[in-house]
Amino acid sequence: RIREDCPLDKDQLGYQTWGLLHTIAAYYPEKPTADEEREMKTFFMLLGKFYPCESCARDFSSLLKLRPPATSSQRALAGWLCWVHNHINQKLGKPQFDCSRLDERWRDGWDDGSCD
Ligand code: FAD
């Protein structure tokens, strides 16, 4: 059973971090300034440096080198992050997420109204 007043294990940390990251991507500007683009790239680079699971952080940093954050628009960033998460899902033997449903999952709620 998950206790909310205990330190996070690797899976809890991952689940909650993805929640934050996908929500940030869902609300990133449609037309970011050059500063916002640069800062978002730095944000992910620092996450790769300080993410408190050493092997996760190492793999994530390599992934960032392979495919740097796409920061040109909200859609680009959210799509890039979906690709990154799916890459990690594949590594962990988890199902692939359908990236065409990103807005429903992370911003608007499912089309069937189940989040209303
Ligand atoms: P999670 O993978 O945490 O997903 C949470 C929710 O996100 C899902 O329920 C789904 O609704 C949604 N989702 C799933 N895929 C996508 C997608 N592609 N796009 C958008 N939404 C999606 N764990 C390890 O064991 N080894 C690692 O190397 C590792 N590296 C990680 C690196 C990072 C940067 C992060 C944030 C986490 C990492 N984790 C790693 C943790 C791992 O990814 C999972 O968070 C953890 O295993 C819990 O998985 P989960 O099944 O609860 O769902």
TrEMBL record:
Q: Which residues form a coiled coil?
A: none
Cite a single Pfam family from the UniProt record. Evr1_Alr
Question: Keywords assigned by UniProt?
Answer: Disulfide bond, FAD, Flavoprotein, Mitochondrion, Oxidoreductase
> What does UniProt give as GO cellular component?
mitochondrial intermembrane space
- EC number(s): the record gives 1.8.3.2
Q: What is its main location?
A: mitochondrion
Q: Which reaction does it catalyse?
A: 2 R'C(R)SH + O2 = R'C(R)S-S(R)CR' + H2O2
Q: Gene3D superfamilies recorded for this chain? A: ERV/ALR sulfhydryl oxidase domain (1.20.120.310)
Q: Which PANTHER family match?
A: ALR/ERV, FAD-LINKED SULFHYDRYL OXIDASE ALR
Indicate what this protein is called per its UniProt record: Sulfhydryl oxidase
Q: What is the lineage of its organism?
A: Eukaryota, Metazoa, Ecdysozoa, Arthropoda, Hexapoda
Gene expressing this chain: LOC103521045
